[in-house]
Specification:
This protein is 41% helix and 22% strand. It has 226 residues and is an alpha/beta fold.
Length: 226
């Protein structure tokens, strides 16, 4: 089932950006621009996860969080705010929020936190991915090959996680760009080849088999050595 996420954010540009990134990751997204509409949408739609801005017109994000918890809502709540004092974080968490991101924040980090909270609510989603001697821990973002820790950059990890979560599935360059870099990526055209090469070097430094393969004219796949 596709997870439904409610975003309550009064900045239209930021709200649209978050909505686009979440939709790209496959989520069903509802967006409202104030606390009252957010309260109504949350009660009607019963979302799987909520992303609330702290400073909202009408009902603040903290008050909205408090009201939703009082009605028995159990879905994870992530607060977004420009407030970065410890006392502010305590107020948000005490109101019932599960997590807290300070603006400006990394969209990659927000998406990672969304995935982490949804996994906790959906325990059948595996936190450990394994293929042959390769193991990836989604909670710690650690990768082991033959029980040896492999140091990866954030994007190398994201690329490997995509392939490892879908072994033997061939991904085109366009699919990888969308899922790992985002649909609006404007960087170098050979970025995927660069990261595939770097990933192979690290994986094959102490392992004789090639796991990440090129399917000529199509894309890339994680499969057994051949």
């Amino acid at each position: 089932m596709t997870a439904h996420i409610l975003v309550v954010e009064d900045d239209p540009k930021l709200a649209h950006f978050i909505e686009s990134e979440l939709a790209l990751d496959g989520y069903c997204v509802t967006v409202t621009g104030n606390g009252l509409d957010g309260l109504i949408a949350a009660r009607n739609a019963q979302p799987d996860l909520l992303i609330l801005d702290w400073m909202l017109p009408g009902i603040s994000g903290v008050d909205l969080c408090r009201r939703l918890r009082a009605t028995g809502m159990l879905a994870p709540i992530i607060m977004l705010t420009a407030k970065d004092e410890v006392s502010d974080r305590v107020v948000g968490l005490d109101a019932g929020a599960d997590d807290y991101l300070t603006k400006p924040f990394s969209m990659e980090e927000l998406l990672a936190r969304v995935r982490a909270h949804l996994r906790r609510m959906n325990p059948e989603t595996p936190n450990i991915l394994q293929f042959e001697e390769l193991t990836l821990n989604r909670l710690t973002r650690e990768v082991y090959l033959e029980k040896q820790l492999i140091s990866l950059t954030a994007k190398e990890y994201d690329l490997l996680e995509l392939l490892l979560a879908n072994p033997r599935q061939v991904f085109t360059r366009e699919q990888i760009l969308e899922k790992v870099w985002g649909y609006d990526f404007m960087g170098e055209s050979n970025i995927i080849e660069v990261y595939i090469r770097a990933l192979r070097i690290k994986l094959e430094a102490s392992y004789s088999k090639r796991l990440v393969h090129t399917v000529r004219g199509v894309g890339y796949v994680l499969r057994e050595y051949a």
